[in-house]
Amino acid sequence: MVENRIGECESMPAEADAAGEQGAFITVEGGDGAGKTTLAKSLAECLRQSGRSVRLTFEPGGTSLGTRLRALVLDPELEMGDWDETWLFLAARASHVHDVLRPAIANGELVFSDRFSDSTLAYQGYGRGLDLERLRRLSDEATQGLIPDLTLLLDVPAEVGLARTRTRSSDGDRIGDADLAFHMRVNAGFRALALEHGERIVVIDASLDASSVLLNALTTVNDWLEARSSGT
Ligand SMILES: Nc1ncnc2c1ncn2[C@@H]1O[C@H](COP(=O)(O)OP(=O)(O)O)[C@@H](O)[C@H]1O
Ligand SMILES: [Mg+2]
Asked: What top-level class would CATH report for the domain 23-229?
């Protein structure tokens, strides 16, 4: 287990007053074992320390319905078609958007989601080979057009990510346990999405140690917040 290196937060500039903050929606994306959950927790803690109102949530999950759907979609005992898998993810996303994400953003919170729509395109599109345009349309329906302000893409070779997940205790994961070639297509998909959406997606080298990844991510988030508040 990599600990949260909260000491890293101290080197970051304190963010301005939390009162009357404008909400923001930031997603953390990447393949299995890239370090998304580890980073999202540390980032949320650091930004809370700087006085911000932070909401940390994840997909699939984040709502009661999402939690049930997560168990189904990841259950290694359950066989399902690729579109069936997609619909379950999209149903989980729709409830996450209207029950959690939109209200928190409207409430001025800095909202971090551990996975969001880019995962659907990377896993079901590039990984499973489903039609990307159809996936984009359905994903837009599920999110009702909600697009992240900023996406941190943790990039690590699939072999490294998978080796990391093996150290994690798990009851099995129908998607995470897929073969290496699948995970390589997923990673290539994430990189293609980063090229396509350079204005939103920032690629972070996740092969570095966890504290370097955290520092790079914090710098990216603080730069983005600063640019927004100065209107650049
Ligand atoms: N930068 C890192 N270097 C080495 N190990 C890491 C790093 N980030 C996370 N880990 C470890 O790798 C495993 C997977 O991390 P996790 O955050 O669960 O990945 P993800 O949520 O992307 O699947 C965990 O055991 C975690 O402690
Ligand atoms: Mg995770």
From this structure: alpha beta
